[in-house]
Structure formats: C-alpha cells, structure tokens
TrEMBL record:
PROSITE patterns: COX3. The chain crosses the membrane at residues 28-51, 71-91, 103-121, 141-165, 185-207. This is Cytochrome c oxidase subunit 3. PANTHER family: CYTOCHROME C OXIDASE SUBUNIT 3 (PTHR11403:SF9), CYTOCHROME C OXIDASE SUBUNIT III (PTHR11403).
C-alpha cells in the first residue's frame, strides 16, 4: 500500500502499523530495542537486590522505615490506567478514528504526568530526610533503578506528545500509524517495568 493512499474507515487495514514493509521493519526493530532495554533493567534490578539495605554500620534508612505503600500504590494505579488508555488509543487508530485516538493519548499523557509528579514528590521527600543518591550503596541502587525508569517515562511522554503535535493536522496514514503503535508499545513496556519495581522494591521492601 502507498503512503499517499486516501483511506476511509472501510478501506483502512486492520493492522495499519504493519501494512507496509517499512511499518513491519519498524515494529521488528523496536522489539529488538526493547530486548536491549530488558537487559538494562535486569542489570539494575540485580544491582538493587544485591545492595538493598546495605550501607554504613547502623545505617539510618531501610526499606521498612523508608517506603510508603499507599504512595507507591497510587503511582502504580496511575501508570496502569495510562496503559489501558493507550490501548484504547491504538484501538481507535486501527479503526481510523484519529480524533478519538488523540483524545485517549492525551489522557495517557495526563496520567503519566501525574505519575511523574508523585515520583518527584517521593524523591524530594527522601532527599529531605537525608536519603540522597550518595548516602549509601542502597540509596545509589534505589535511585539508579527507579530514576532510570522515571527517565524512560519522561521520554515516553515527550515522544507521545511530539507525535500528537506533529500529526495534529495530518490525520492518520500508513506512515505515522507505525509510529503511534511503537510509542504505545514503549509505554506498555515501561508500565510492565514499573509493576516489577512496585513488587520488588516497594512491596517486598515493606513486608520483608
């Protein structure tokens, strides 16, 4: 199919992100990229588990005394809900409903910003207590893991916002459909990573 073909909801392909060879290559290439990301986060998780609660003798901060599950749970709900809204966005993309897709992507952005706001509040609270990046091996491992995830969330928000703005007047076509799809795929990935962070860092940290 040609990028310049004029489509209607009836002629739009069921999976527009893979309707062209370029689209298929983008999707396959992105899966390879995500595999590299898995290696990165696996290394950060392993480092965190090795250094958890490790530091100077009589260190002041531990996972039980530091982490608060209600805050981490609220962050989790925001991010999981944003994953659901991105699913709705791709559903409407596949049904050639550009306006609905943009709406759900906008909601995804708001939820992601809410998550980032809570994470910034959490980090600021910890720093105020004296739990800084260089306070101990534990703090360095914690900020490296959770901070790297937060950086990925920020990149995802910038990516989605840029796609929305650049294509606001263009509508849907076979050139930008794969771009929206891989952006949503990236967003699902960082949501899954957060589920592991919530479980390994916060839940296991609090309940021991």
């Amino acid at each position: 199919m040609d990028f310049n073909t004029k489509f209607t909801p009836h002629t739009w392909p069921d999976h527009p992100e893979q309707a062209t060879m370029e689209g298929k290559n983008k999707v396959v290439g992105f899966w390879i990229f995500l595999a590299c990301e898995v290696v990165l986060f696996a290394s950060l998780f392993a480092t965190y588990l090795a250094l958890k609660n490790k530091g100077p003798a009589g260190m002041e901060f531990t996972t039980q005394s530091l982490f608060e599950l209600p805050l981490a749970f609220a962050m989790t709900m925001l991010l999981l809900t944003s994953s659901l809204t991105s699913v709705y966005a791709i559903y409407h993309m596949r049904n050639f409903n550009f306006k609905a897709m943009q709406t759900w992507l906008g909601i995804t952005l708001l939820l992601g910003l809410g998550f980032l706001g809570l994470e910034i509040y959490e980090f600021n609270h910890y720093v105020g207590l004296g739990f800084t990046f260089d306070q101990s091996a534990f703090s360095t491992a914690f900020y490296s893991l959770v901070g790297t995830h937060g950086f990925h969330v920020t990149l995802g928000l910038v990516w989605i916002a840029t796609l929305m703005l650049r294509n606001a007047k263009r509508g849907l076509n076979l050139y930008n459909a794969p771009k929206f799809f891989v952006a949503a795929l990236y967003w699902h990935f960082i949501d899954v990573v957060w589920v592991f962070i919530f479980t390994v860092v916060y839940l296991m940290g609090v309940i021991g």
